[in-house]
Amino acid sequence: MRIRFDKLGVLIAILLGLGTLLAPFATFRANRIVPGSPRSILESLPPIWGTALLIALGVAAVLAILKTSAAARLAVAALGLLALMLLIGTAGSFLTPEGNTYARVSPASGFWTLLFAFLLLAADAITRMKPKPTVRVLLLGVTLGALAAILASGRWDALSLLKEYSGRADVFWNEAAKHVTLAIGSLVAAVVVGLPLGILCHRVRPLRAGVLNVLNLIQTIPSIALFGILIAPLGWIAVNVPGAYAIGVRGIGAAPAFVALFLYSLLPVVANTVVGLAGVPREANEAARGIGMTGAQRLLRVEFPLALPVILTGIRIVLVQNIGLATIAALIGGGGFGVFVFQGIGQTAMDLVLLGAVPTVLLAFAAAIILDALIEINAPLNRAGRTA
C-alpha cells in the first residue's frame, strides 16, 4: 500500500520538531526583570510528563505528515493544544521554588512554536471540513470556554503572565472596558455616518470620487501621527466650546483616539457600501419599480438586503482593525490594553507586554470568526434574493 504524505503536514511536522528539539519550552527568571535561563521540555516538566509530551509530539508529527481525515487531524490538534495549555502551567509550578514569590516562569519560543503548529493543524482541518458558520462559532465558544476553565482552575497561577495580572486585576478590566469601548464605539459611529454617506456616493456619482479620495488620504496617515494631529484641535475645542470638556473632549485621552479610529473606519464602511449597492442586479431594481416601490422602499427592501454581505465585510475589516489600533491609543492616554504593552516595554517585562497583547489578539480573532459567520449566513439569503 502506497503511503501518501500531506504537504502542509510536512511543514507542521517540521515546526513540531523545531519546537520540541531545538527551542526551549519555558524560561526561568529569578525575578521579573533579569534575563531568563531557557529550559527544555524535560527540564521544565516532571520526568513522567516530559516524556509523555515528547512521545505525544512525535505521534502528532507522524499523523500530521500522513494523509488522514480532517476529523482525525482536528482531534490531534485539539488534544495537542489542550496538552500544551495544561503542561505549561505544570512547568510554572515545577520550576518555581517553593515559597519563592519573586521567581518568574514564562512560555518560551518552543512553546509558542508548538502552539502555532497545532493551531495551523486545527485551521487546516476546519477548512477541509467546511463546517457551517454556526458550527465555527460553536467551536470558538468551546475553545474560549476551555481557556476560561483553565484560568479559573488556577492551573496557570505560577506563570509570570498570571502573576502580572494578579497585581493589576482591577486595572486590567478597567482598561479592557476602555479598549472595547474605543473599538466598538468608533465602529458604531462609523456605521452611523458611513452607511448614509455610502448610499449618497452611490446615488450621486460626481460625489463618489471626491469622498473616497479624501477617505483614502486619511488612511495613508500613520496612526501615531493622526493621534498627534488631533491633539491641537480637540484641545482648542475643549477650552473654547462650552460643555465640550464636561463630555470628555480633551487634547489627549480617549477623545483623539476615538476620533482617529472613527476616521480610519470610514473608508471600509463607505467603500463597501458603494460596492455592495453597485453589485445589486439591475433586474431586481426594475422588478421593484414594476410593482410600484418607491426609491426608499427599493433601498430598504431590495438593495440593502442584497448588499448586506459586502457591507458586513467592511464592518468586519473595521472591527478587527480598530481592536488592533486601539492598542496605540495608550500612547496619548486613551487607555486600553496598550497600557500594559507600553508599560512592559518600558520596564523590559515581556510578560507584562503579553498581558496586553494576548487579549488584543484573542478579541480580534473572535471578532473575525463571528463576523465571518454573519457574512456567510447572509450570503445564502443574498443568492436567494438574486434568484427570486
From TrEMBL:
The record ties this protein, via InterPro entries, to: ABC_transp_perm/SBD, MetI-like, MetI-like_sf
Question: Where does it localize?
Answer: Cell membrane
Which membrane topology describes this protein? Multi-pass membrane protein
Q: Which PROSITE patterns match?
A: ABC_TM1
Tell me the keywords, alphabetical order.
Answer: Membrane, Transmembrane, Transmembrane helix, Transport
ABC transmembrane type-1 domain sequence ranges:
176-371
Protein name (Swiss-Prot/TrEMBL): ABC transporter permease
Q: Name one GO cellular component term.
A: plasma membrane
Q: Which residues cross the membrane?
A: 48-66, 73-95, 101-123, 135-156, 176-200, 212-237, 257-278, 299-319, 325-345, 352-375
Pfam families membership: BPD_transp_1 (PF00528)
Coiled coil region boundaries: none
Indicate yes or no for the key word rRNA-binding: no
Q: What's one GO BP annotation on this UniProt entry? A: glycine betaine transport
Record's family?
Belongs to the binding-protein-dependent transport system permease family.
- CDD domains attached to this UniProt entry: TM_PBP2
* Keyword NADP in record: no
